[in-house]
Amino acid sequence: MQAEAPRESTLAAMTTLRDRQKQLTRDTLLQTALELFGENRYATTTIDEIATAAGTTRATFYLHFSSKSEIARALINEADRILTEIDKPPLRGVVSSGDPALIREYIGHKFDQWETIKPYLLVAQQAAPSDPEVTELMESWFEGVAQNIKAGLDDADRFDPETRRMRGVLAFGQLEYLSVRWFRFGWLQPREICLDLMVDSWCHLLLEAGAGEQPG
């Protein structure tokens, strides 16, 4: 039995190597698709073009993704990971805290992340009109954020329970709309002015009256 240990160790190492290579190929396909969608738009980019630019084949593409739609959804999920991995505390905790400083820090972080996630969300905007699955994923994403805000209000038992989800919809809707404008035009007003106004609006929607007011 002991003689089998080196062989088992070698097989385990080979399996780990194959898994790493598989993940590397998948990551390369994702990054290549992101770049091509940005250069040529989602609708006109083909699977063959993605595979060729990634240095692989159409058959290899289908080992990792079933369609161009699936790769678009994977990119959207990656944007969600980028957006949420630095949130400490997470949005639910920010809202439940009732602390305007945490709200300001949270929104400021989102502003800072827009440059990174812009290519991903532009793919979503291009794909959604012709792809119901992408549209559904984006709606689910929006609703998930609104529900996180509602959960924070629930935790704090703040405001009428019947209004909490809508408060989340309005707060995140403002941030999402501003992000779309920023993707197209950049800061039409200074960033700090936009941040001040967004924080004031979130405090009005999510904190007790007057919580977000700045001292004169």
Word description of this protein:
- It contains nine helices and no strands.
- It has 216 residues and is an all-alpha fold.
- The chain folds into two domains: 65 residues, Homeodomain-like (Arc Repressor Mutant, subunit A); 150 residues, Orthogonal Bundle (Tetracycline Repressor, domain 2), CATH 1.10.357.10.
- Helix content is 78%, strand content 0%.
List keywords for this structure.
globular; Tetracycline Repressor, domain 2; 216 residues; mainly alpha; Arc Repressor Mutant, subunit A
Secondary structure: elements and pairs:
Elements lengths: L3 H37 L6 H7 L4 H7 L3 H17 L6 H7 L2 H28 L4 H25 L4 H25 L5 H16 L10
> What fold name goes in the CATH topology slot of the largest domain?
Tetracycline Repressor, domain 2
Mean pLDDT across all amino acids: 90
State the helical fraction.
over 70%
Q: How many beta-strand runs?
A: 0
